Amino acid sequence: MRERTFAIIKPDAVADRKVGKIIDALLSEGFDIVEMRQVVLDRPSAERFYATHAGKRFYADLVDFMTSGPIVALQVEGEDAVAHLRNFVGTTNPRTAARGTLRRRFGTSSLRNAIHASDSPGNAALEAAQFFAPPK
Ligand code: CMP
Question: Residue 121's CB: how many other CB atoms inside 10 A?
């Protein structure tokens, strides 16, 4: 099933000039980029985006990190895009993520892991709505 999902290239990867390589990897993997926007998140937006993690031990560091510089918000489309992109992004810790995954290639720690991908179609729609107008 062709579907749409949502991703963020995080401040670590933008600052390290890895956006082009990550976009290239997404396109080579068969995803289509349908929306793309570079923004700097303010604290309320970062807190809202990561509200499900409020109270976790890494939450304050996460909000600091996500507001530390520009991010690139993306909507990508493809066959089973939500599950496919989650697999392609890899597990949270880049050091233990599978070889070939984006986090293994571009991330440097569990916090600074280069890219976020939505974990369900419902969350993809909710997260995308923070950055993009709804699809027509
Ligand atoms: P993401 O997929 O964007 O969802 C939540 C984010 O919190 C995660 O990627 C990491 O950036 C961060 N995170 C999750 N677990 C940890 C952890 N154990 N230590 C530090 N940061 C974490």
Answer: 16
